[in-house]
């Protein structure tokens, strides 16, 4: 496999991994939405309110700060325990995205990932990716004529599973529809060992099914079940 071309850079406030196409252009101030002034607009679909669309020259990008959800997020929203650079969450996601993107998988192109160490052994992290033009979440494709889209989504997820790619938060908001189906938000994602059985795949699909019921709760049982069966058909699973 082709060796990664991204570079590690140490800045005034932290450390970054930068894609080759942005070497010489990237500035660690890019992680601060205030740096972009009116050029940063909050992402309002999905997420935890910590992502922005930004524009660097002619490039439309997405900036995401790593934040905790649930009860822990109320107290330590952006702080993570630093246990070594190999375990920094933004770096792990950047490396996985870089590997998948270079292999031709439909994922956002990674631009830069950074972290900043703090007192008490913690760090904050951020990730910048190229924006997927015109993308909408699969959850917004909930009309009777959208069965082919859901079938394509099932085919997409099956492709990742067949390549042993584990997505830790597979849900209807992290599957995007554009010129093709994309998967986004690979925080805590990883490549599974070849010796693994299929339980993680089944757990992934069960998590996604729960998301379908949650996100499409207002659609109605019969239309929702039809979309879910279309997804399973695309995935290649036996209809339920």
From TrEMBL:
It is a peripheral membrane protein. It is an enzyme of class 2 (transferase). It catalyses: an alpha-Kdo-(2->6)-lipid IVA + ATP = a 4-O-phospho-alpha-Kdo-(2->6)-lipid IVA + ADP + H(+). Its main location: membrane. Belongs to the protein kinase superfamily. KdkA/RfaP family. Signal peptide: none annotated. Its EC number is 2.7.1.166. Keywords: ATP-binding, Cell inner membrane, Cell membrane, Kinase, Lipopolysaccharide biosynthesis, Membrane, Nucleotide-binding, Transferase. The active site is at 169. Catalyzes the ATP-dependent phosphorylation of the 3-deoxy-D-manno-octulosonic acid (Kdo) residue in Kdo-lipid IV(A) at the 4-OH position. One of its GO terms (molecular function) is ATP binding. It is found in: Cell inner membrane. GO terms for biological process: lipopolysaccharide core region biosynthetic process. The keyword DNA-binding does not apply. InterPro entries: KDO_kinase, Kinase-like_dom_sf. The gene is kdkA. Pathway: Bacterial outer membrane biogenesis; LPS core biosynthesis. GO terms for cellular component: plasma membrane. It holds the Pfam family Kdo. The keyword Membrane applies. The lineage of its organism: Bacteria, Pseudomonadati, Pseudomonadota, Gammaproteobacteria, Pseudomonadales. This is 3-deoxy-D-manno-octulosonic acid kinase.
